[in-house]
Amino acid sequence: MDLVGTTAGRSGAETRPDRVLDVAGLQALVDRLLAQGYVVIGPTVQSGAIVNAPITRVDELPRGWGDVQEAGSYRLRQRDDDSFFGFAAAAQSAKPVFFPAEEVLWRGHRTEAGFAIDSGTGADGGVPYALLGVRSCDLSAIGIHDVVLTGRVHGDVAYATRRAAAFVVAVTCSDPSGTCFCASMGTGPRPTSGRGAPYDLALTELLDDGPHRFVVEVGGERGAELLDLIGAPPAPEDDVLAGDRVAEQAAGRMGRHLDTEGLTELLYAAADSAVWDDVAGRCLACGNCTAVCPTCFCTDVEDVTDLTGSLVGRTRVWDSCFDAGYSWIHGGTVRASTSSRYRQWATHKLGAWVDQFGMSGCVGCGRCVTWCPAAIDITEEVAAVRSEAERTDRSEGQS
């Protein structure tokens, strides 16, 4: 299925001139999307965190707010400027928009003639979404779900429908956090239409050497048409170069690094590594990492009936491979220990995913590190596995 219109971006075959918007122009962009029937979803400040929510005004964006993220720690901070997008990964990605945590698959009810089946109601009633401020790591995660959820023999129809109707405005990350490692994974900090999903527009925010403004890369015809409607002028060459510097500087300020050299083979060979037992001594198996991960897609199905037996429904809900019951089959649980469940998650995410889908399942957003109550860091655990393997190789070489 063709999920969105043809795009180019920085990595596309077709190059469209960049445009520029001021703050009023950004509001005009939002207004036009609303007028076209979209529900605009953007970052907002709620309950001490930056979360995605419906917006109608740019004043609802986290203007002047940044964040400080480390392993097991998240705090907002007041910036000394008026940046709208001067923060790293929000608490959640775009995943709940396209792939809701709970979704009705079908409902049924008794009739005089027997039983009637209703189609799934969905979580949104078919309303199209416009996503504003999608980070490059999350754009890559959408691209992964485009493959995983729609490329199978039986694709996820609800997901594909939402994606096809969506308008995506990506944004260059200027302030990576202490847990970010998208540069290691080749997924950021600048949106591209290569590894990531296609986008309609991509913004780079500029605050220095002039007024507050946004360089806008045009990713497709829908984006170009929208900019024409609001009268966005061509971007000066100096602004284009300034936007390039924002991305380059952000790439040099990653808080984490993950060595991906030979990673799939490394993890396959580490099935009996002592690292997994060490992690299990700290892991709570709470599933926080899978809940905030923008690419995890494990689900369960719940069937519910009313007390009269007249109504029945089937609902799909997010699940986690850290749940002991997730791998339950007749006779017992396949992965009964926390160590086996963490090993499965890490090995699948960084190794087996490549064999299944032709790409890594990790985009380097760092959310699993930030939101782990035990401050477990996947980059450190992989480094420990690699160090163990290197010690083993040296020992065998000396014997």
Distance between the termini: 56 Å
Strand content bin: 15-25%
Mean pLDDT: 91
Number of strands: 15
Q: What structural class results from the helix and strand content? A: alpha+beta
Instruction: Strand order, main sheet: write it out.
Output: 1-11-10-9-8-2-3
Using the CA coordinates, give the radius of gyration.
23 Å
The total of helices stands at 13
How would you describe the shape?
globular
Summarize the helix and strand pattern as letters.
Answer: EHEEEEHEEEHHEHEEHHHHHEEEEHHH
Main sheet? 7 strands, mixed
Task: Describe, in plain words, how this protein is organized in 3D.
The chain has helices at 23-35, 95-98, 136-150, 157-165, 182-185, 221-230, 237-251, 263-268, 274-280, 288-292, 338-357, 367-370, 378-398; strands at 19-22, 39-46, 49-54, 65-70, 73-78, 102-111, 114-119, 129-134, 167-171, 201-206, 213-218, 299-305, 311-318, 328-329, 332-333. The strands form 4 sheets. A 7-stranded mixed sheet has the order 1-11-10-9-8-2-3. A 4-stranded antiparallel sheet has the order 7-6-13-12, with no helix packed on it. It has 13 helices and 15 strands. By secondary structure, it is of the alpha+beta class. The relative contact order is 0.16. The protein folds into 2 domains: 19-100 and 127-251, no CATH class; 263-294 and 326-398, no CATH class.
